[in-house]
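Protocol step 4 of 6: structure prediction from sequence.
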Amino acid sequence: MLSDLLMWNKIGRIVTLLSNRIDVSGERALDLFYTSHTNERLHNERTGLYLMSDLYIVDELITELRTQ
């Protein structure tokens, strides 16, 4: 799996993209991300989500948020 540093960078990019896409603060985007099922899937090697692009993951997260 990605090293811790690479994962932190990926999460930072995802949170920034999410913040911009849904027009919320970075802090709110971080909270939405860390409490999401998408975050759990990203950290689970078996899902392979960590291999996907940042934009794909943001789209997955937005879809998840819409279905809640």
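Step 5 (inspection) to follow. The chain has one domain: 4-66.
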